[in-house]
Amino acid sequence: MADSRQRQFTNPEQPGYVGFANLPNQVHRKSVKRGFEFTLMVVGESGLGKSTLVNSLFLTDLYPDRQIPSALEKIKQTVRIDASTVEIEERGVKLRLTVVDTPGFGDSLNSADCFIPIIQYIDDQFERFLNDESGLNRRHITDNRVHCCFYFVNPSGHGLKPHDIAFMRAVHHKVNIVPVIAKADTLTKQEVFNLKRKILDQIDECAISIYSLPDCESDEDEDFKEQSRQLRSAVPFAVIGANTVIEVKSRKVRGRMYPWGVVEVENPEHCDFIKLRTMLITHMQDLQEVTQEIHYENYRAQKIEKGEPVKKPRGTLTQTDSDREKELRDKDAEIQRMQQMLAKMQAEMSQQKAVQNGDSKAQDVTV
Ligand SMILES: Nc1nc2c(ncn2[C@@H]2O[C@H](COP(=O)(O)OP(=O)(O)O)[C@@H](O)[C@H]2O)c(=O)[nH]1
Ligand SMILES: [Mg+2]
């Protein structure tokens, strides 16, 4: 029994298979034809294995000519945003995957500064979508919104550090955060267990909302329910990345070689890599829906609340558009003025009433 459960997290086919070709089972046929657009952001201190993990996840070298900065460069470094897009096709299903890497996070002495460009990036994508949505050509909008953010936690930090907490709190209403424990091969099983518990406690204490896997429908099949349970209990996923293929007992595996043996990335006994990939693939559509229905709607609501006009991308602003925008802005301002006036009038009226009540009591006059 346990055996069959294990199998759900092993590679169903040859190594080199990502698994999103199964997506048509879950989504509308139209999006299958067009292909999926998905954006994954990776954030965490540099050197935690973000780039390696991304390459292991999608079996593509997204960063063929990367350079590792020196310590001196790192001190000066502010966070950079690198977005790379690859198109992966598997059994006729296309995935347009954008990975947004944030090298330099936590390197600079003032780590709060690192948040700003990341938050800006997320907001910019919402803004772009909002503009496109209110534009004329709404049928072919490219969705560049960040659908998921893997947040890498340092395995040697004994839990979340203050900047981890601050970052997550700064973005948890904007993006689906999936926390991962980096370089899990540097910890023992017990240490991983303790660290997971500590991180979950801290997430709870600090009221950080991370992405939660959706509840299964009651008519879902048992295997799927069991898979969801196992995925849920693996959070925060303890992962290992490696770009080298090693031969173990005439099997080729992605792994890291040590004097005492090989750590296999895709072995569920060794780490949660396959679980993380399964989570991402099977919940890609849910991650998109939560982005659309919660995070994007939050963004829109905030914009409306602030009374900010929806900006058009440069170059597309026509006279009529700007006129209409001005009209809307004026109307908004007028509504605000009226609301203020109303509030003032109500305050005055209730003051008067209070005075009258006082008087009527004193004079004992009935109305
Ligand atoms: N032990 C161990 N080392 C790793 C792991 N993933 C990556 N590395 C190594 O850590 C170093 C930094 O990895 P990189 O992917 O560039 O980290 P990034 O700065 O977060 O993108 C490289 O030497 C990798 O080979 C892992 O899971 N375990
Ligand atoms: Mg990197």
From TrEMBL:
GO terms for biological process: cell division. GO terms for cellular component: ciliary membrane; cleavage furrow; cytoplasm; midbody; spindle. Its main location: membrane. It is found in: Cell projection, Cilium membrane; Cleavage furrow; Cytoplasm, Cytoskeleton, Spindle; Midbody. The keyword Cell cycle applies. Residues 34-306 form the Septin-type G domain. Residues 348-367 have a biased composition (Polar residues). Pfam families: Septin. Keywords: Cell cycle, Cell division, Cell membrane, Cell projection, Cytoplasm, Cytoskeleton, GTP-binding, Membrane, Mitosis, Nucleotide-binding. Residues 305-330, 343-367 are annotated as: Disordered. One of its GO terms (molecular function) is GTP binding. Residues 321-330 have a biased composition (Basic and acidic residues). Belongs to the TRAFAC class TrmE-Era-EngA-EngB-Septin-like GTPase superfamily. Septin GTPase family. This is Septin.
